Amino acid sequence: MVVIISCHHFPDDERIYHKQIKSLLRDGHRVLYFTRSSSNLNLSDGQITHINLSINFSINAFIDKVLNSIKSTGNIHQAQIHEVELLPIIKKMKNTFPQVLTIYDVHENMEALYRTYSERIMFLKELSIKVRNFNENRYLKYVDHIILANPPMGINTYKNQSTIIIENFPKIEYLTSLKEIKQKKRNHILYHGHIGPERGIKELVYAMKQVIKKVPSACLNIIGTFRTKNFEDEIKNLIQELELQSSVKISEQVAHSQIWGIINKHRVGVIPFRRTPLTEENTPTKLFEMMICGLELVVSKLPPAQYFVNNSVHWCDPDNIHSISQSLISALNVKDDLSNIHENQRLVKEKYNWERKQKDYLTLFKDQ
């Protein structure tokens, strides 16, 4: 049996459940899946037993509950965790079941995350990173394999560990046909994902003021969750100040299963990230989602995106309102030339798809 544990993701998370767990189930594995969330979803079904604990449980209480349940189950072959806070359970499992193969899935570069979001002075910020790394390293000797969701752009933090890169590539089934792409008429632009200052949303709204002067019918849809209430108020006030209420719309985050239909209603996708430690390290999953759906893409020229695509997107300079607006206008003015879309879909079909990556993932769970 395979044990999968997450304390911060929703049970039906795209990477954890729809890609990894479903791949394990198709490969014949039985899965015991633990989550800690506010969701009422119960994903138990035949080969999978899903146990969701309340978000009100502390991490330590969650770990104790999970460990007690695992001890009563027995016959555990592999265990995979999805958050750094769960490393203590890996140590406890190794002490109880030495034969269990342990896997640590690192979704984001945590050092870059700290450097981007921490509001502490530089000295305290770097000190907290050192403390965090020290605490993580104490447990890594109990980890057999580390999965990285992003290829390292800088220093490989886990260079002395057994690591494998398994990106958040989409499934081939989401490929939009060229016939459907050609039917997209409206000048609709899409941003979807987290909504925070580092994502370049403020610059994007300012850019739209310039875009509609050249393309009056252009409309930007921003879909996602604001990181802070203050930033939400700032963006909504900015839209009013610029009189963009009819050209910029904001919608709440939707279930990932619904995002594909939404992406396919748009002609242009935009990823206007600012230059921060986080955006210089982590690859935006939305890049591949928009590629497979056949959108013209406007993307900030940052190392992660440049690692995967070359000239098949409309590059813009990070933090540069004029550059963002010019790239959006260029993308909107592409009518019958599908060369960018052909190239991006070719890349997804040949390289950037989950079907290729799931082989690497399943290899970790072969009989030892």
Question: How would you describe what is shown here?
Answer:
The chain is of the alpha/beta class. The protein contains 14 helices and 13 strands. Strands 3-2-1-4-5-6-7 form a 7-stranded parallel beta sheet, sandwiched between helices. The protein is globular. The model has no long low-confidence stretch (mean pLDDT 93).
Core attributes:
single chain, 368 residues, alpha/beta, 7-stranded parallel β-sheet, 6-stranded parallel β-sheet, 14 helices, 13 strands
- The averaged pLDDT comes out at 93
Portion in strands: 15-25%
Order of helices and strands: EHEEHEHEHHEEHEHEHEHEHEHEHHH
**Cα end-to-end separation:** 13 Å
How is the largest sheet built, in terms of strand order?
3-2-1-4-5-6-7
Which secondary-structure class do the elements indicate? alpha/beta
Report helical residue fraction.
Answer: 40-55%
Radius of gyration: 22 Å
Number of DSSP-assigned strands:
13
Q: What assembly state would you assign to the polypeptide chains in this entry?
A: single chain
Low-confidence region ranges: none
Number of helices: 14
- Shape verdict: globular
Largest sheet geometry: 7 strands, parallel
